[in-house]
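STRUCTURE REQUEST FORM
Protein name: DSBA-like thioredoxin domain-containing protein
Source organism: Segniliparus rugosus
Requested output: structure tokens
Priority: standard
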Amino acid sequence: MDEITLWLDPVCPYSWTTARWLRSVADKEGFVPRWELMSLAVLNEGRELPPPQAERMRASRSVGRLFASLARTLDDDGMWSAYAAFGEAFFERGAPFDDRLVGEVLRACAATGSHEQSPSDETLDAAVRASHERGQRALGDSGGSPIVSIGGTAFFGPVLTSLPGQAAGPELFLALKALAAIPEFSQLQRPRPVRH
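Status: completed
Returned output:
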């Protein structure tokens, strides 16, 4: 099986959906996804953003540092455990990113060592940036979160507004895998449905 890598910004809701979809098809399709960081904060550096987006970029930096710290000691299964705990709290329960959530994430992945202070540790920014830049190079362009790479062919997306059904999830993966095998294929897009 080709190597499957997902670059994600942990605070991006589309990444949360794409990661759960990818994890749901991994066993059936016989692969273990690699989890890598990308950073919407790095991607948006130097841009004037409205206050809610600027606040999300501050969260991106702090959460990115936590996951960069964890990536030093955890394997892909451990990183998934950490991200799943974060996503369940942050996206599903609306929990703020604070010391309590950091503790919840660390317990979920049985992290050892001192990760508690990582969200404010600016020395971790270099690791976040390096992972982000690897994702951009894999894509061959500037792209947001998520980025999925199949056997070295990377796509921005898939951007999923909700989880595909039990049958549709594997079908989507096989379709993406088929597109990755066609070197002439470049882009396919349709408008996102309007949310009310």
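Reviewer notes: Residues 22 and 94 are 23 Å apart (CA to CA). The radius of gyration is 16 Å.
Form closed.
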